[in-house]
Amino acid sequence: MAAFLVGPLELGLLWGVMVLGVYLTFRILDFPDLTVDGSFTLGAAVAAHMIITGYDPWLGTLLAILCGAIAGSVTGFLHTQLKITPLLAGILSMIALYSVNLRIMGKSMISLLRMDTIFTNIVDLGVSKQLSVLILGLAAVIVVIFLLYLFLETELGLALRATGDNEQMIRSLGVNTNTMKVIGLSLSNALIAFSGAMIAQKQGFADVGMGIGMIIVGLASVIIGEVLIGNNTLLKCLTAVVIGSIVYRLVIAVVLQLGLAPTDLKLFTAVLVALALSSPVLKSLIAGSTGVARGKGEKNAGC
After folding, report:
1. Which CDD domains does this entry report, sorted A to Z (predicted)?
2. pTM score of the predicted model
């Protein structure tokens, strides 16, 4: 049982950094950013290319984070300066990043087998490979949550949060909401690229199609975390989405054990997100039908 839980926990932590990036745009900034699918692969592509060309994997990971931030700023520029709608701006960046990622990788897949990675450095200290993933994943999540919490509690962070809550109001107070959007998108995609870089090094390869459907995975994790943990405070929200990521990976592992084909995972995720997003409507319908049935029963009893 313990061995079964290790895999989802490892992936949940590594993907948790990506989910935090999705949460930043989806909840904090109220910006439906579809750059995610491209910037996740961008992080993996940059890190993998740097590693196979002989550079230090930590340097490759840092460069991946920087490239992710640049990708997010491009989406922000398209929206704020060229007045392209958020959805279309994200789609344009995502499409452009597909070609950029192929250019960086030089081919559709880069293998990292027998190459030193950030996890290899931890293994060299005498830690098992499986434990090294858990250590780095947990450390990355804790550091990102801590830094995000500190940032979002600063004056700049509060302005970013206010931009997502009420853009017109915060603009009337003299805040440049366009700058806030660019900062939020850059930070979000930097985290997403960071996750992509770690995932590529953990699984031993980077693939040009590995980012497809990342936005759905991120949304599923955010919603699951909010339902299970709640969103009363900022720190609770940040922690909840990471827990949601772990629970999501655990659910995936369970349904695969039950016989679901791996090719159906995207469909399963889409259905899960649709149910989660429509849960308020479903609850009201169930409550309404229950109320009607109870009313009829009371009426019949009165007769």
Report:
1. TM_PBP1_branched-chain-AA_like (cd06574)
2. 0.90
